[in-house]
């Protein structure tokens, strides 16, 4: 039998069937969707998709095959009786086929009774596309019909980061290559971290595909990538699980529920009335009418926040002549703000403030959603956020160093205690300027103050990230606390190099040529001292090993002393 006959047999006899693999929110411990993977009959030459689609491409029957696969997948998916989404693989090349009936997936979804917003169209980078602009066209096309869109196999094909950052898909699925042995490959970890950072900026959710080992999963969890798919959780099946017990797979972490401080958004979060997406608009209207101070209502399903229904938006809809008739029985999911600000309760206040104030039309009375492990936790208001930040700044000013305006010892100790309570690894770097006293004695305290300001400027320039904390202990001693220790050593080395490059102009030409100055030492004797250099003691702290900022301060001081044993600038690293 020829390839044409094999393929025709499968299509005409409707022998194709899907298997489904769950996509899991491991933080919320729930299944958010199922990817449909098409199969032919067992033992058939075209049983598996690689051969099946290759033959269809050769025979110019890709459009017919695609439509048959979608119909089979949707029919089988509806029998699963689930509220999750269907992830449907689509070859973007079919849009180039003049005979392909456009809008067929929408017609099929309506015919079979599934809302388009429950279908996620996966456009894969694996298919060779002659015109990369076709992917943009495909995204626009499917979005206009009401479907969500995912870019599948990111990193496996032609388009790369630039294209998907432009088209802003709802989901991005990272290719298995970058997940395999992720725990042993720093380059892959950096790739995944960069994808997460970019996805946050374009409001896309990232899914890790092909997870097979606990180590891979735990590394993804540490990177806060919680949408996962792979054999570790479930293999593709015609009867996939409706729920999964994930607790045995999760990494052991400390319970932080009672350990939040005033520097995280958890301090402002409060409980609030919530509605489910299928509740009707007239129910929300009654709630707003009964409670005149109620500003917004989170829309939540299975603990997951989906959006925010705001008083002013709802009242505007009902204010028209036919408002009640038109909207009273609409699902609140149809009229909610589907893209509210959502932040984790451990997010620093300063970070939340940056997110909020990015909106040029921010309303101080507006509320946003706070989550814990991606589950609904409560709401907080912009007004309370700004008030808390102002109070903290006033409080910090009391303890700030007057020369650099950096936080002093009290805020440093508080920050260290927070890091110890967080249950996460972190790092602390202790910076000390070598031979600073001889410079002060020779050039005067005013010039010495300029070097202190230089040091503060360099630290700010190289740690311009909300995840890093800079403190000024006093004199020429500074600390930086890194929430993410992975790049701490690299940053410290850059700071050392910058200091060495910037310090020479503080000496006169004669002293620069000599490479030293004469001054009185602590023993009262006149001697020569090298030009100022920088000693850095960097300590990388493993979670759970210490419980007091006093212990950390001792470790940092010891590391700094070892760095000062070198005659020139040096960073000594101590892994704990």
Question: What is the CATH architecture descriptor of the largest domain?
Answer: Alpha-Beta Barrel
Q: Please state how the strands of the largest beta sheet are arranged side by side.
A: 1-2-3-4-5-6-7-8
**Portion in helices:** 25-40%
**Quaternary structure:** single chain
Structural class: alpha/beta
* % residues in beta strands: 15-25%
Q: Considering the protein shown, what is the CATH homologous superfamily of the largest domain?
A: EAL domain
Q: What is the molecular shape?
A: elongated
What is the number of helical segments per DSSP (H or I, 4+ residues)?
20
Overall mean pLDDT = 85
Largest sheet: 8 strands, mixed, barrel
Number of strands: 20
Kindly provide the radius of gyration, computed on alpha-carbon positions and rounded to a whole number of angstroms: 30 Å
Number of separate structural domains: 3
Description:
Pfam families: CBS (PF00571), EAL (PF00563), GGDEF (PF00990). This is Diguanylate cyclase/phosphodiesterase. The chain has about 575 residues and is α/β, with parallel strands linked by helices. It has 3 domains: about 15-230, TIM Barrel (Alpha-Beta Barrel), CATH 3.20.20.450; about 265-385, CBS-domain; about 400-575, Reverse transcriptase/Diguanylate cyclase domain (Alpha-Beta Plaits). Helices cover about 40% and strands about 20% of the residues. The strands form 5 sheets. The chain has an 8-stranded mixed β-barrel, surrounded by 4 helices. The radius of gyration is 30 Å and the shape is elongated. Mean pLDDT is about 85; it is low at about 255-260.
